[in-house]
């Protein structure tokens, strides 16, 4: 009997024993094309430069507490990230994952307003159908009803506006641009409802990952969001935990939208799975408010800036930049989009194929014309995940909501080193899984 506490206690999971490029290998020797272990493995599973960096660092010094010392890889990684970061982002706070990054961002926003003498600012606005992590602050920001439900009594009060989700949200007689402005303006309405003096931050994902399936914002949406935040002195926190680090074809996803946040959260692709690491980047304006104020960010975790984790991430970012991998994510992502459209573009139960770079989503519907989702009781996403896994494909299907606000979807986030033949393999395996699970039209 295994003593590991798995997420699904009734499931018996294979044991991963090896990795080879885009493939994971289990103890029976079965190979799985890894196209979305939650968008972590951007370099595949056997990147020699990252493996060497981890080995070298662990042999030098594995741990030094950040309350006493910094480390060479942490310093170099912060420099490299800031060199490429958008806007005025100027300081990097290293954590161990995505939830720690978003949680830190919320607390940093609060402390910033205390430091500058606006203690009444405490309210966060985020979006419906979103996910920002599983710790209580991050979960409070998230707008996924299913994830929130059983912890609702423990959550902090925040409010949620509509996401920019053109597939279901845009009216027939509305242009994409007008739709984007309309939903962005919901932020202003909500700020005015709460009272601008009480709002400290707005948090969202530039490209929505897990909850909606690679949903990009329409042109102009984020420019308007930035404008509204500036007008009311609200900090813009962008969560690029999943979509950042080159996945969308830019090192930072918001580069595409032509805006920069006040606080940016990254994780997943930052360590590419070689070490658990995340980071929160903030502007000098925020950092200096703390530096010249109390001089102490009242937050922290034991493993902040862990030397081995930052060494791994430094090698990852050097690989991403040195090998121009975000550009490769863009090119291969376009090939993936074409392959998906060729295979499923006319499929009776595929409503939308979307995304950017190697971050793609397929929305599964019962009816293409009405965009009606399948009844959630059918468990389409769970069945697709299982069927694809049996075929030797790891992808990320997610269930729709019970109120039908969005349907099941499949998120695909393969490593940036994926080859065209492996894109074909992905499509063939996904097609077999879909044949097994989806009802005949
Ligand atoms: N934000 C986003 C956008 C995510 O996709 C996730 C993880 N799926 C998180 C935050 C939380 O990250 P972690 O699981 O590393 O805590």
Structure description:
With 441 residues, the chain is an alpha/beta fold. It has 2 domains: 145 residues, Aspartate Aminotransferase, domain 1 (Alpha-Beta Complex), CATH 3.90.1150; 273 residues, Aspartate Aminotransferase, domain 2 (3-Layer(aba) Sandwich). 37% of the residues lie in helices and 17% in strands. The strands form 4 sheets. The protein has a 7-stranded mixed β-sheet, with helices on both faces. Strands 1-2-3-15 form a 4-stranded mixed β-sheet. Helix 1 runs antiparallel to helix 10, helix 2 packs parallel to helix 10 and helix 3 packs across helix 9. The radius of gyration is 21 Å and the shape is globular. The N and C termini lie far apart (43 Å). 52% of the residues are buried. The model has no long low-confidence stretch (mean pLDDT 96). Bound molecules: 4'-deoxy-4'-aminopyridoxal-5'-phosphate (PMP). The site of 4'-deoxy-4'-aminopyridoxal-5'-phosphate has 15 residues, from helix 3.
Which geometry do the CA atoms define? globular
> What is the end-to-end distance?
43 Å
Q: Segments where pLDDT lies below 50 for 5+ residues? A: none
> Superfamily at the CATH H level of the largest domain?
Type I PLP-dependent aspartate aminotransferase-like (Major domain)
Summary, kept brief:
Helices cover 37% and strands 17% of the residues. By secondary structure, the protein is α/β, with parallel strands linked by helices.
């Amino acid at each position: 009997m295994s003593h590991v506490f798995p997420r699904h206690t009734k499931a018996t999971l294979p044991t991963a024993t090896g990795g080879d490029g885009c493939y994971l290998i289990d103890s029976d020797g079965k190979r799985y094309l890894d196209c979305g272990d939650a968008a972590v493995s951007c370099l595949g599973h056997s990147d020699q430069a990252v493996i060497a960096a981890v080995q070298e660092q662990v042999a030098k010094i594995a741990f030094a507490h950040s309350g006493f010392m910094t480390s060479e890889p942490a310093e170099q990684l912060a420099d490299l990230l800031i060199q490429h970061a958008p806007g005025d982002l100027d300081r990097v706070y290293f954590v161990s994952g995505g939830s720690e990054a978003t949680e830190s961002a919320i607390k940093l926003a609060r402390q910033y307003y205390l430091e500058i003498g606006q203690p009444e600012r405490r309210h966060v606005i985020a979006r419906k159908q979103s996910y920002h992590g599983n710790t209580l602050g991050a979960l409070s920001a998230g707008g996924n009803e299913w994830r929130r439900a059983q912890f609702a009594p423990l959550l902090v009060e925040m409010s949620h506006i509509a996401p920019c989700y053109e597939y279901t949200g845009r009216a027939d007689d509305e242009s994409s641009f007008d739709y984007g402005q309309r939903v962005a303006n919901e932020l202003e309405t909500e700020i005015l409802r709460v009272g601008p003096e009480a709002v400290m931050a707005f948090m969202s994902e530039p490209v929505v990952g897990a909850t909606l399936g690679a949903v990009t914002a329409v042109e102009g949406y984020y420019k308007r969001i930035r404008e509204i935040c500036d007008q009311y002195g609200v900090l813009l926190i962008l969560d690029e935990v999943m979509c950042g680090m080159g996945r969308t074809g830019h090192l930072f996803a918001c580069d595409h939208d032509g805006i920069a946040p006040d606080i940016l959260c990254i994780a997943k692709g930052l360590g590419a799975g070689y070490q658990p690491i995340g980071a929160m980047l903030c502007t000098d304006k925020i950092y200096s408010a703390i530096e010249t104020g109390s001089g102490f960010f009242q937050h922290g975790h034991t493993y902040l800036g862990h030397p081995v984790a930052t060494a791994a991430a430094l090698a990852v970012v050097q690989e991403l930049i040195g090998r121009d991998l975000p550009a490769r994510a863009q090119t291969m992502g376009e090939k993936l989009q074409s392959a998906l459209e060729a295979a499923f573009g006319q499929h009776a139960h595929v409503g939308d194929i979307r995304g950017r770079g190697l971050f793609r989503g397929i929305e599964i519907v019962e009816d293409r014309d009405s965009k009606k989702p399948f009844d959630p009781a059918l468990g389409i996403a769970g069945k697709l995940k299982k069927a694809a896994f049996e075929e030797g494909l790891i992808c990320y299907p997610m269930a729709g909501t019970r109120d039908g606000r969005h349907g099941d979807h499949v998120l695909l986030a393969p490593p940036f080193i994926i080859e065209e033949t492996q894109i074909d393999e992905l499509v063939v395996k996904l097609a077999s899984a879909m044949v097994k699970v989806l009802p005949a039209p």
